[in-house]
Amino acid sequence: MSKILITGATGHLGKATIEFLLRQGVHADQIVAFARDISKATYLTEKGIEVRIGSFDDRDSLDKATQGIETVLLVSGLDKNRLEQHKNVADLSKKNGVKRIVYTGVAIKDVDTSLNNPTMEDHFKTEEYISKNNLTYTFLRNSFYADAVKLFAGEHAIDSGIFLPTGDGKIPFAFRLDLAEATAKVLTQNGHENKTYELTGGAMYSFTDVANILSDLSGKTVTYTDADEKTYPDTLRLYGVPEPAIAILSGFSADVKRGQFAIESNDLERILERKPRDLKSVIKEVYSL
């Protein structure tokens, strides 16, 4: 019986992918979840899913986790050492005869000129490592989550407006559950071997568009201010934003402004065999409007 190993199984994307696999008729005993903490994975064992405990840093646990596995879903990590962690997964997958790795990366035009490096660069170095080690792969380059727009626009954007140095830059936001559904389909279908997909929501939105959507939904006038990118970090410091978050927000905004994420692709729609969820409906949900 072929088995699928899901890393990050207790995270948002991993958990949702497992749910879609079950909906698509994959039996629970064909799914193996890789998690750090068994207490966070009890809901999986209750479904009849085997949980193998370990971490990306622990090669012994990865060795055990990848035994008897046909396909690995490598959900990209968040650790500062994640490139080496991803290499560990690839190494042990190859050692144990895994037939394919499905890796979730990021949809960006030119990582070499990204101002958010090395955050973005790790994804492409992971892809390169997997392909150069003669592992069959599917690379899912995910656009920014539509349901995370609140993190960038701000929790209180309806009252205070949106303050970001993104200019007229646009993003084809994708709903996380749509990405999870597409991931489950790729894991269970033939024909995705050694393919790279740009999984975007299709339609492009600037943060001016986001402000206009919030205005329409709330009945209030929500403004967008194109902040000065040179002074933006100092403004964030005044509000007590931690330095790592400042670096991420500044780099993200700079890349948006320069059109790094404005990738036109219908890969997500083709895999889903339907239109992805639109940004307005997601914003309505995340802002409880």
Main sheet specs: 7 strands, parallel
The third-level CATH topology of the domain at 4-143 and 174-200 and 263-276 is Rossmann fold
Name of the CATH class of the domain at 4-143 and 174-200 and 263-276: Alpha Beta
Radius of gyration: 20 Å
Strand content: 5-15%
| CATH architecture classification of the domain at 4-143 and 174-200 and 263-276 | 3-Layer(aba) Sandwich
State the end-to-end CA separation: 46 Å
Superfamily (CATH H level) name of the domain at 4-143 and 174-200 and 263-276: NAD(P)-binding Rossmann-like Domain
Number of DSSP-assigned strands: 9
The succession of helices and strands, N to C, reads EHEHEHEHEHEHHEHEHEHHHH
Spatial sequence of strands, sheet with the most strands: 3-2-1-4-5-6-8
Mean pLDDT: 95
The general outline is globular
Low-confidence stretches: none
By DSSP (H or I, 4+ residues per run), the number of helices equals 13
Helix content: 40-55%
User: Structural class of the secondary structure composition?
Assistant: alpha/beta
Quickly list its features.
single chain; 289 residues; alpha/beta; Rossmann fold; NmrA-type_oxidoreductase; NAD(P)-bd_dom_sf; NmrA-like
